[in-house]
Amino acid sequence: MTLRIAEIFGPTIQGEGALIGQPTVFIRAGGCDYRCSWCDSMHAVDSRFRHEWLPIQADQIMAEVEHLSGHQPLMVSISGGNPAIQDFTPVIALGKARGYRFACETQGSVARDWFSDLALLVLSPKPPSSGQVVDWTAFDACISAAKGAETVMKIVIFDQRDLDWARDTAARYPDLPLYLQPGNSETDPSKPVDPQHLADRMLWLVDQTVGQGWLRPRILPQLHVLIWGNKRGV
Amino acid sequence: MTLRIAEIFGPTIQGEGALIGQPTVFIRAGGCDYRCSWCDSMHAVDSRFRHEWLPIQADQIMAEVEHLSGHQPLMVSISGGNPAIQDFTPVIALGKARGYRFACETQGSVARDWFSDLALLVLSPKPPSSGQVVDWTAFDACISAAKGAETVMKIVIFDQRDLDWARDTAARYPDLPLYLQPGNSETDPSKPVDPQHLADRMLWLVDQTVGQGWLRPRILPQLHVLIWGNKRGV
User: Fold this and answer.
1) Least confident window among A135-139, A186-190, B149-153
2) What is the CATH number of the domain that holds A61?
3) Residue B199, Cα to own-chain centre: how many angstroms?
4) How big is the CA angle at A147 (ends A142 and A150), to the nearest 5 degrees?
5) Which of A36, B110, B117, B183 qualifies as a cystine partner to B84, CB 3.0-4.6 A?
6) Is A93 near chain B, with CB under 8 Å?
7) What is the DSSP letter of B208?
8) Pairing mode of beta strands B75-79, B101-106
9) Is residue B233 part of a domain?
10) pLDDT tens-digit map of A101-148
């Protein structure tokens, strides 16, 4: 059985969310059931890029992860696209046997048994600005599938409407640790990123949450965008 | 009994280390046994500013924290200066009774029984560029004093010599979670901070650690400097 993989890269630091700053190798799965208006990984989503998604066996994937990490076990992040549309059971089993730990980031539209093998499941329900509509029954099934695995929720915020939506969503899941991050409206990898603009977006989001007395979410930027812009493979 | 407090401010987000992004009220203690060459909080260190350090009772401190947080329990960070030269036992006891949790950041030169009452003890041994010399016996006493409290190590890195020192220090404490952050060489609150420069310092530090196969430390910037520059009270 093969998986469609858009890229495997690292080790670099995790740029966002609960594991921010942590040395990580990334496995980016090809294919997605969503089409977010502001998607920053269209090369792993749009079927136009399908010829770039190599069909690759689980043992070949782990061989590449081990090669990149110099055989030092570390955190492996499975992202996409939506990695949950494929079966990562064998990759995780091989990796865990060698001391690697796995995190997965998914929107929460497809539940998988292998979520329970993760060290961390990051569920990122997409806010209204994405143009997508969340299926909450599927989302709840993802939480159930994680069983004992640590599960957190991360929501990208582009505007006030997204923020209002995030508050409603947070209220629905009072027990999930919550991370918010300002959306990145510049997704063209050839264009430079303005660090001051990223700082301004963070300031706005902190003002609109902590500054308004909403003290639950942790507010974090996308460090990789600050450091490397929208370049791929870092 | 009163404590000398340079400032109490927030809620804002924790800008660095293990709790990065977390809504926090800060209690900055006045007074320090160190004089780091690049200290970014001289207003809480240099005795020139001593007249600004209000002698204040524990219940008044907690009253101010509760006022600032709108009586919503949250994380309180005790920093300085070196807060360990004073006795925060009564502040922490009052706060914990009301649901607040406490983190403390100290260089590890003075051990205190109240470390064991913390949710998180951040030990920041100062590298060679600081001009200070670490007393490792005192540092070990801090780790012992924390008992069950979660303890992490954070080291600020200005140059290659600091980084070599951090690797040796990390090897001495294999069980402490480790955070590295690039040093901020511009500490004048009236001067603007260049976000691109901060991004470049992060890139250097990631290259010199993860890029060289050192996969243990988490690498994080000072978000508050990115967002607010060197302004006080944010």
Assistant:
1) A186-190
2) 3.20.20.70
3) 21
4) 85
5) B110
6) no
7) H
8) parallel
9) no
10) 999 999 999 999 999 999 999 999 999 999 999 999 999 999 999 998
Q: Which of A22, A215, A226 sits opposite B72 (nearest CB)?
A: A215
Question: Is the confidence at residue B131, as pLDDT, over 70?
Answer: yes
Contacts of B177 (CB under 8 A, 6+ apart): B18, B152, B153, B218
DSSP B122-133: EE-PPPGGGT--
Q: Check residue A101 and report its DSSP letter.
A: E
User: Would you say residue A233 lies in a domain?
Assistant: no
Q: Which of B72, B219, B223 minimises the CB distance to A221?
A: B223
ipTM, two decimals? 0.94
Range of the domain at A42: 2-228
Quick one: which H or E segment has residue A108? none
Q: Which of A45-49, A61-65, A82-86, B12-16 has the lowest mean pLDDT?
A: A45-49
Kindly list the distances between the CA atom of residue A143 and the CA atoms of A101, A136, B184, in Å, as whole numbers in the listed order.
19, 11, 41
Percent of chain A at pLDDT > 70 equals 97
d(CA A131, CA A129): 5
Size of interface A-B (CB pairs under 8 A): 91
DSSP A17: G
- B234 in any annotated domain: no
